[in-house]
Structure formats: structure tokens, C-alpha cells
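Recall that a protein's primary structure is simply its ordered list of amino acids. Everything else, from secondary elements to tertiary packing, is in principle encoded there. The following example makes that idea concrete.
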Amino acid sequence: MAEETILGPDLSEEEMIVLCRQH
């Protein structure tokens, strides 16, 4: 997941949910 690498390891649950919805 390139998105995770860009945002970094300190992703909040909200950020991960948004990334999942984008796909």
C-alpha cells in the first residue's frame, strides 16, 4: 500500500477508513 507509506505508520483509524473507501 503506497498510501500507507506516504502517510506513515502513525495512521489513525479514520485515515485508514478513508483510504479503504477510495478504492
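The mean pLDDT is 70. The helical segments are 2-7, 13-22.
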